[in-house]
From TrEMBL:
Protein name: Histidinol-phosphate aminotransferase
Molecular function via GO: histidinol-phosphate transaminase activity
Similarity comment: family membership: Belongs to the class-II pyridoxal-phosphate-dependent aminotransferase family. Histidinol-phosphate aminotransferase subfamily.
Source organism (scientific name): Mesobacillus jeotgali
Cofactor(s) essential for the protein: pyridoxal 5'-phosphate
Pathway recorded for this protein: Amino-acid biosynthesis; L-histidine biosynthesis; L-histidine from 5-phospho-alpha-D-ribose 1-diphosphate: step 7/9
Length: 363
């Protein structure tokens, strides 16, 4: 092949995707697979969403609303913020891509945690920038070191809170002081895809800070607790000047019509959101404690998943029994994995097969 791709792509690998459910069934000869690898909402989506999609399907021959005005209006009412602050996207990852496209030049830097959502780094590098990664402390962002990493060439800093894949949050006062100390010419990108799952008093609500900090960008999504992962709807909340720049580089009709209808219906059903959050908190506490009894530790999570680690073999047995988790790397541990929180029945099944495995190896 004589046509060469851009040099920036040489060190980039595609986002890792696991085996499909059908592949797992065929490989291990099983009929049931519990997909707990991608942080999806195991409780599905609001019944109101399905009704909205059916109604919207009558208009498939027409282009969607290119400005996603219906979702923007719903978000504006929900957060009591002017519509000019919102931008709706094809998943919140699109906002990340648009931010780097609009603001990262060659030689620019972006600061982020060493273990966090990998698409920050990928998108920065694609635009010719340099991703500066800062080691974490017990699965948490080291905001002090991240602050120290900001130099004249720094254009943006990413904070994932709760963090993917560790599930941890940074303390409220610590995060506020960090935001206050970041120079105004550096974008602060708060990725809060899992914020609806956070129930700690130490979790900082960043929305009230938008008026004071014009360099603050907040990312949220309908993919997680709203259960719309397959439809790809996210949104960013930011100063109107930043939104204007992003609109210059986004694709036309970036959110399809069915996805828009679904998102508008989803945000109306906050009872569903609260129910999912409550169930998630209960199952998070349950599984974390039961894992600990089996010598499987985990970081303190405020999300809908646990980052678990142990020196005992787990992942292969889980997969063979139809439980899909995301394998991770953690120095000093043979087995590290991220597991999406499931139902109580899911967790009891997992605990049974893991207990059985450990008992067999002990005999």
């Amino acid at each position: 092949m004589n046509v060469k791709a851009r040099a920036e792509l040489e060190g980039i690998t595609p986002y890792a995707l696991g085996q499909s459910i059908e592949e797992i069934k065929e490989l291990y000869g099983i009929t049931t697979v519990r997909k707990l690898s991608d942080n999806e909402n195991v409780y599905g989506t609001s019944p109101k969403v399905k009704e909205a999609i059916m109604q919207a399907s009558a208009n498939l021959a027409f282009y969607p609303d290119g400005m996603t005005s219906g979702i923007v209006e719903k978000l504006s009412v929900h957060y009591q913020l002017d519509p000019k602050h919102f931008m709706v996207s094809n998943g919140s990852e699109e906002i990340i891509r648009l931010l780097t496209r609009a603001y990262i030049d060659k030689s620019d830097e972006a600061v982020m945690a060493e273990v966090t959502f990998p698409r920050y780094k990928t998108n920065v590098v694609i635009e010719g920038g340099r991703a500066v990664t800062v080691p974490m402390i017990d699965g948490r962002h080291d905001l002090k070191k991240m602050q120290e990493a900001i130099i004249n060439n720094t254009k943006m800093v990413f904070v994932c809170n709760p963090n993917n894949p560790t599930g941890t949050i940074v303390a409220k006062q610590e995060l506020f002081e960090f935001i206050d100390n970041v120079p105004s010419n550096v974008l602060i990108i708060m990725d809060e895809a899992y914020f609806e799952y956070a129930d700690s008093e130490e979790y900082l609500d960043t929305m009230p800070l938008l008026k004071q900090y014009k360099n603050l960008v907040i990312l949220r999504t309908f993919s997680k607790i709203y259960g719309l992962a397959s439809l790809r709807v996210g949104y960013g909340v930011m100063h109107e000047d930043i939104a204007k720049e992003l609109h210059k580089v986004r694709d036309v009709f970036n959110v399809n019509q069915l996805a828009q209808a679904a998102a508008m219906a989803a945000i109306e059903d906050q009872a569903f959101v609260q129910d999912c959050s409550a169930k998630n908190s209960a199952e998070r506490d349950f599984l974390k404690e039961k894992f600990k009894e089996l010598e499987i530790d985990s970081f303190p999570s405020q999300s809908n998943f646990l980052f678990a680690f142990t020196n005992r073999p787990v992942i292969k047995t889980l997969t063979e029994n139809g439980v899909l988790v995301r394998q991770m790397q953690l120095p000093g541990y043979k087995e590290a994995f991220r597991i999406t929180l499931g139902s109580r029945e899911d967790h009891e099944f997992i605990l049974h097969i893991v207990s059985q495995l450990f008992h067999e190896r002990a005999v």
